[in-house]
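Sat 14:20. Reprocessing the chain from the morning session after the first attempt stalled halfway. Input below, unchanged.
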Amino acid sequence: MIDRRYGTFRGLVRLALSHVEVGIGSGGVLLPDARAIRRLVFVCHGNICRSAFADVLARKHGLNSTSFGLSTANGKPAHPPVAAAAAAIGHDLAAHRSLRVQDYTPAEGDLLLAMETRQLRKLAADPLLAAMPRTLLGLYTRPKTPHLHDPYQLGDAYTRVCLERIATAIPALAAAFPNASAC
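Finished this time. Tokens:
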């Protein structure tokens, strides 16, 4: 049950710790006026699983978005099991290619949406990104999940759960940040 719902026991522990961090205000969240947000920027480790899926889904729903990875190389396709799981629920990740944080070009109105609090801390420590608005994608999922554990090399059941959780965030993001609409 832990593997299906949380990916691994470590994923469950990180989720619990993330709830505490966010609850006491040390999760690294820095939000501006929602009307100032013009683009959603999804951030994860490799930009081949979670942020790739979120970016593709956000664009499909008419939102301005992009994504990058904190530890990746440019041009990598989506992780095949994640691409297969996304295809099974109607989303095509074939065109996705990873982008390194070093090659991301910040723009006024960007909101960085990380998958984990430790990623928010890395963003806050980066001199080029530290002042940018940032939050956790999981704070917009149903139910709220401040830690979206990386499905990379984990089972199909958890990969589906992770993608389904991410999918619940997209309508909430569209409602919370209406000026991020591509229309």
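The mean pLDDT is 89.
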